[in-house]
Predict the structure.
Amino acid sequence: MLSFSGFYRLLLAGGLFVGASMPVLAAGEKAAAEMKDATGKSLGKIEIVSTNGGALLKIKLSGLASGPHGLRFHETGKCEGNFESAGGIYNPLGATHGFLHEEGPMAGDLPNVIVPASGDVEVELLNSYVTVAKTADENLFDEDGTALVIFERPDDYGLEPDADPGPRIACGVITQQK
């Protein structure tokens, strides 16, 4: 029998049951990414805590331009130059990008972060497709690591096939915390 949680994951993953191999996780395993702009200036930190529902991101940043910004997990733990070194969106299941796309979302897709006029943002988001738990089959700590990337403009969640959230304006390599 498929649980509600499993059914929800099945529905969102476009027919792939991603919860089948994910064990019930002990809450509390942690990771973090110090987010830096292209000049190397720290903008703050994103903490990631493993929960039974996925990864809880605790975002606390300052110095960003006001307005909506795309935020995604990316497949490589490198933040060099214009941050293209972080690779594409983290996508171990081969899904299509976008919460609103019929074949999406990718595991690395996240909601936009809305920055107020002050430039300071503090928000929490839950991603049910990733985990920082070392015991899970799909976690963020593969051989080349994972990064979080912030974009200049918002993500349209897959409405336009050529949608581009603009340049990558901040990046942080995700590291395991004790």
In short: Strands lie at 30-37, 42-51, 54-61, 67-69, 71-74, 113-115, 121-127, 147-151, 168-173, 175-177.
